Amino acid sequence: MAGHTIRFSPQGRVTEAPTGTLLSEAVARAGIDLVQPCGGQGRCGRCVAQVCSGEIRARSTLRLSEADLEAGYVLACQAVVEGDAEISIPPQEELTRHLTSDRTAGAVSLPQGYDPQSSQTIRRIHLDIAPPSTDDQTDDWSRLLGALRRQASIGNISADLNLLRRLGVILRASGWRVVIVLDQPVQNGNARLLDIGPPETDEMPLYGITVDIGTTTVTVWLVDLLTGDVKAQASEYNQQIRRGEDIIARIIYASKNDGGHELRQLVLQTINGLVDTVCQRARTRPEHVVKAAVSGNTTMLHLLLGIPPASIRLTPFVPVVNQPPPLTAAEIGLEIHPRATVDCLPGVASYVGADITAGTLSSGLEHAETTSLFIDVGTNGEIVLGSREWLIACACSAGPAFEGAGVRDGMRATKGAIEEVWISSETLEPTCRVIGGGKPRGLCGSGLISLIAELFLNGLLDKAGNVNVGIEHPRLQMGEHGAEYVLVWAEDTVHGENIVLNHVDVDNLLRAKAAIYAGFSVLAESVGMPLEEAQQVLVGGSFGQYINVEKAIEIGLFPDVAWEKFKFLGNTSVQGAYLALIDRKARQKIADIAARMTYLELSADNTFYEAFTSALFLPHTDMSRFPSVAQKLARPQEKERAP
Amino acid sequence: MALSGIEIYKLLPQTNCKDCEFPTCLAFAMKLAAKQVELSACPHVSEESKARLAESAEPPVRLIEIKANGNSIQAGNEIALFRHEKTFYHKPGLFVRLRDDMESAALIGVVRAVDAYRVGYVGMDLTVDGFAVEACRGDKEAFAETVASVRQNTRRPLILMSRDAAMIAAGLRAIDGENPLLYAADETNWEAMTELAAEHKAPLAVVAPTLEGLADLTQKAKDKGVMDLVIDPAARDFSESLARATQIRRLAIKHNFRPLGFPLIAFPGECDDLVKEAMLAAQAIAKYAGFIVLDHFSAEAFYPLLALRENIYTDPQKPIQVQPGLYEFNNPTPESPVLVTTNFSITYFSVANEVESSGMPAWLVVADAEGMSVLTAWAAGKFDAERIAKDVKRFEVAGKVTRRRIVLPGQVAVLSGELEEELPDWEVKVGPREAVDLPAYMKQVLL
Amino acid sequence: MPIEIPKDKWPGKIRTVTLGATSEQGGSRGKTVTLGGASTLPFMNFEAPMPHPPQIAFELRDRRPDDWSAVVLDVWGGAADDPAVWARAAEEQGADLLQLSLSLTNAQGNPTTPQMAVAATRKVLESSSLPLMVYGPGQAEADNELLVAVAEATKGERLALGICEDKNYRTIVAAALANDHLVVARAPMDVNLSKQLNILITDMGLPPDRILMDPTCGALGYGIEYGYSVMERLRLAALQGDSMTQNPMTVSVGFESWKTKEAKVGADVPSAWGEWTERGIQWETLTAVTLLEAGADLVILRHPESLRRVRLAIQDLASIAQAA
């Protein structure tokens, strides 16, 4: 195959590529890291490259303006090499870190009456072993077992080959006085030998970690297993993001070539980096971590374990495994103690994973006296309805709009993102709050929710989300997709361009909120309970923390129940994993939750679609579900009639 | 009254043992509520719960079957008043009436034509279900002969019609071993007719002009051990037929009124103006008939009636789909572009409206994505390059155009490369993400 | 044993909507047509009589519609060449009202101008005394331009202007509002979308009794079951008291039926389809009757024989039952 020469500036790299090669592949081959949040689907418009000269054919011109096209810009993932070319790769927007959960160890409290001795599965035991003699030629391993039986009443333990190889040396070097570390998941049950060492091992702390693998963010907590205390916390973007922002994009990426392997490496790098961070903060070393509890959605756990996730997205939506067996750190690739137990928490279905079973525990839904709702808001919205008697769950794909993707001026909740908007009902002029202060760059999810609520209540959007062209105002202008609202004028932004909200953006947001609300209503309907009767609405997910309840109700994202019924809980998944790590009973409860949670597949019939179109309106087609919003709406209508 | 999923759940053991092959008791309860599974699948349910659940599980409209040597047609077992609530399950049987006073050759001609009639509709062969043979001459031998002659020319199920039990008995002898529907028992002949029905294990139609009369007759028949009954409310015009059918269905379903919990039979041919026959049959299809006997057979009327019956009796819970295929807009020519979308109705409508209103000629390939929207179908693997290429070939699109340009929805721009591989002679383009931007795209890019 | 007839009692009822205005009312029509008013499911005469039985309209075009089925064009003959003649013929054939569809272009392929649209509308109004519905060509810009002109030129006639859709309703509604007309609101076979459009239109200040709902029907064999169920559900919601679904429903049965292959094509079809003309009429007739049972208050037809037959069915259905 004839190769063409592709030169990249300003990096100064050169590569050869045959006709038909995707430009993004050539970029990668040249060793340049080009972030592709949508996984190369031509959707996000982040992988722009400028063709200075040469033959590059663009398949799709989406996301590029006419001026961009004229200047020779293409999307690398949608452009094909057809001859030699010179390409300029502009510097990409840096991912400014704004992970509030990082470092700020939330007030994590131990369960009441928590007793580490009886709750913890990791046990450290001193053993005095009778040395052998010609009268007693019992082998070393049996000696150890005997001592264990007599001194700790533990009957049955197993050990791996590496430990056996070192057993004799250690016993003799330590003069037959040792400390052993065991993992005994079931009280008085079988145990596994994790380590054995001289008595001074006693001085060394025993640590565990909880890992929550989110599609966007990975969180790791370091826990002192002797006390149950959280010693350090850290969060980081999941490095897989560059290979796709949402779950579906990752699954597809995983099924191509070596994509699964690459994604596994990326998440391992993320977790191992975070383990280093928390260990440094607590002045310890990763080898002292002897147990891990891992939570996350089903796809993330498949990717971590290197299990092909393809069947998750295809009918009938069945994962390879919902309840992985206990594994060791070495076989997974976690850089902690190699024999550390890695406990991947059980999930329920393809789209209701361990993050939800763990969240159901930590949110308190699991023992709620009256029927309550628990929702984990993210790219996917997972919703559980129930109480201590029964639990039913569903998942709805909200899409990445709440993460700022698929929206013209959307962005993640990083520095420069507008997170809250107020619009004056007198002048229709906006006021914005920007993360980190300073000039804004775009809107994050909470900003979008707040902007849409304000536009709607002030009559600038009709109930279908159309911009009301009947109103004359300088901020209402015609754009590429019809009428749009200019939130921030170019001179006041970081990049010197207007920040606007257009009709396509509103549609995306409406679809996202409608999917979530439809999930609520279908669950409630499936058990014949009016949604408004939920006694609590427990909101998990880190994004959930920043949602303004009032605004969320105004646009019809959350049910119109009294504000005091809402509880914002932050990352319920990691909290649940923490409880599972330190408490055998909590771990058993999560298993019970997984076993008794009924999963409702929303694609099975029309019910969800009906609820979805019904919710695809501001705030909802059935206004009687949103009495508080109906009341507020009376006001701007009066104003509209005034001159 | 039907119980809700949670109500049923409370009657189950709540152990989540999975022996019913559902993951939880609640999942099983919800399937029970939807009548998609039998209670017997749970080996642990208590006798008390069983009794309570069985009561709510019995179908309010009894299932009736007309059998003829291996051929049979069923009606009943319906549980809904409106098809959006639950599928209407058993399509009403369409029958053609023959009379024993017809000239023999003519009668055989009709039987053969009707028996052979089959019409293709969305991949199915639709046929007429059977014949009603009516005794008009008052001559038992002649009736028996006619029945025998009909049976020689068709294997389809039969309805025997006469108010004279002796006549029906003669007809039954001609088709020994079959279980035809006997029409009909009334106030005067019910005892004899009931005996015949019991003896031949044949379903029996009862006819009376009032609901009380009908309930009275079904009760009498049941007392004699005849359970398989069909109701003729004796209304023949539009208004009265609709009122009666609705009242009976409501009593059966909403009030669980057993005496009227049977399928209905309708005779649209017995009207004052023959142009009404097909319209009355259409009403009977939509409004609750279990068996429909027409007096005239014509392809022009039976094809739409058979199609309508398929339509009304489809599963309403399936997503609204349009027929996959190649659609034409604004008189396309071989030069016009080919657009692609999925067969989810709302997706199709939004695309079709925009293309139509663009005023520009175009072809639209509506791919079979099992009724999902573009992104959903793509996510579930139902709308990929392979499937699109397969449909492009299946609909013989290449034969319709000289300039081979195909436009993908912008939401699946990712498929462009694979589609180029699948369709090497085609120029693959990526359209806008939203249908509303199509006219502008078509004007700028596709000229 | 006496059986109590199960009668449904509903808290809601269908709005009455009146099309057309006589000279005393500020228009020029010889009569008005009132739709709706039902307080029961269709034709449940044993519960309550239907105050305004369903009506039938003929669909006309501003110029000869060459894409129509030859069966329909043949029956109208030369009348289809001139909207004035066509309108008169349609009235003679027994229509209750007329529905004029404007074309995107004239016969020469030039865009229809507002003047041409107004002229065609005037012709129909002058040659017939029936109330009129006027539909644009179905393209947002053209619809808005032509319908505004028609609305202004016919102020006070209480025409029904169509078609409002969720992406394009403001201009048409404003024109109806300013010129005393009605609108037809069409949503694609979806209960929620129908309701949403009604909300949007009433939010603009148009009184609800000037809105007709077109839920989009689908012809027999081509998705009629979806339209059928959507209409049944809309009617049930309306009777249950949902104010934004209480508008009378109109369905373009002729448009849907005659574009099916069964009705449109005469040659090279299976023999099991039967004779073409009768088949086409059956297709239109049975589609209409089925949708009437689901709650249609107005059916728009194309073939005169279909109108004759559907009329028979409506007369029978709307008659008061003897018994019960």
Detailed description of the structure:
The complex is a heterotrimer of chains A (643), B (447) and C (324). By secondary structure, chain A is of the alpha/beta class. Chain A folds into 5 domains: 3-88, Ubiquitin-like (UB roll); 116-203, Ubiquitin-like (UB roll); 207-344, Domain of unknown function (DUF4445) (Nucleotidyltransferase, domain 5, 2-Layer Sandwich); 355-400 and 510-629, Nucleotidyltransferase, domain 5 (2-Layer Sandwich), CATH 3.30.420; 402-505, no CATH class. Chain A is 30% helix and 24% strand. In chain A, strand 1 (3-9) and strand 2 form a beta hairpin. The longest helix of chain A is centred in the last third of the chain and has 24 residues, at 503-526. Chain A is globular and about 100 Å long. Residues 93-106 and 636-643 of chain A have low confidence and may be disordered. By secondary structure, chain B is of the alpha/beta class. Chain B has helices at 5-9, 25-33, 47-57, 104-116, 140-153, 165-174, 190-200, 211-223, 238-254, 276-286, 299-312, 345-358, 374-379, 385-394, 416-422, 438-445, and strands at 64-68, 71-75, 93-99, 118-121, 124-127, 130-134, 158-161, 181-185, 204-207, 229-232, 264-266, 289-294, 325-329, 338-342, 362-367, 405-408, 427-430. In chain B, strand 14, helix 12 (345-358) and strand 15 form a beta-alpha-beta unit. The longest helix of chain B is centred in the middle third of the chain and has 17 residues, at 238-254. The radius of gyration of chain B is 28 Å and the shape is globular. The model of chain B has no long low-confidence stretch (mean pLDDT 92). Chain C has 324 residues and is α/β, with parallel strands linked by helices. In chain C, 39% of the residues lie in helices and 14% in strands. Chain C has helices at 70-76, 83-92, 114-127, 140-153, 170-179, 191-203, 224-239, 253-258, 261-264, 276-294, 304-317; strands at 16-19, 33-36, 55-61, 97-101, 132-135, 160-164, 182-186, 211-214, 250-251, 298-301. Chains in contact: A-B, A-C, B-C. At the B-C interface, strand 4, helix 8, helix 9, helix 10 and helix 11 of B face helix 7, helix 10 and helix 11 of C.
